[in-house]
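Posting here for the record, re: adenosine-5'-triphosphate.
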Amino acid sequence: MTAMLSARDITVRIGPRPLLESVTAHFHAGQVTGVIGPNGAGKSTLMRVLAGLVAPETGAITLDGAPLPPPGSRARARRVGYLPQGHEVHWPLTARRTIALGRMPHIPAFGTPGERDSAAVDTAMNRTATAHLADARVDTLSGGERARVMLARVLVTETPVLLADEPVAALDPYHALAVMDLLAEEARAHRRAVAVVLHDLTLAARYCDSLILIDGGRVCAAGPAEPVLTSGALSAAYGVRFARGVLDGGAVITPIHRLDEEPSCSLN
Ligand SMILES: Nc1ncnc2c1ncn2[C@@H]1O[C@H](COP(=O)(O)OP(=O)(O)OP(=O)(O)O)[C@@H](O)[C@H]1O
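Prediction output follows.
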């Protein structure tokens, strides 16, 4: 299967230290690809490279086999949507106006938003359960509410590639499942390539078609989700023994205890 978004041989260095080393990763249309790995592994750095916010020292990123438009351009913004980790916002805009900013790449210079833009905002607010927050200032929202508003802002951009860095980190279980359902729908119904950074391996097992396990800036395992989640590389990367099973028809992966060995699969 041809990948929609491909990163090949990406190396990112800050000073002498490589944050990513020869990372190759593929993200397919119609699939949710999970990016997993321990703290500091390089997951967010990979997302930032894919979003065009960090220039790699080596390597290339292609969309459908062609180079991406330059970072910061409207053409790039129409192709790759990026939901960063954390959702820090300091601007005193309402949730609706914040979400509407996601339509900017579609509005001509000196143009004004039209009915199509307004409808896209309404749809995204309904899908992220944020319609009731429309007039609330985004800097006054709770962490989980703000996370859903920022997701809506990315959804309205309607990009073929959607990068979400820990989109469920601030969410309660109901909203975490709702957001994962939504990302899966974006992939399956709209044929988008969805990349999602996750720490919850049960969500990774249930929602991701394929996984990229990163540790120490390198890819330790990649491919269909199940073999990655059952591989020794998973325990080695996290330094944790996991229990795996099926409960109520769904996969469950939970950490049991730390391993004695120093966690690392980057030498495997
Ligand atoms: N601008 C920077 N300058 C120096 N070091 C950086 C910079 N950005 C990231 N790093 C380092 O690169 C490593 C990878 O960071 P990154 O944010 O990609 O990790 P991560 O896998 O997303 O981790 P987490 O699960 O904790 O969010 C970390 O050790 C981090 O301290």
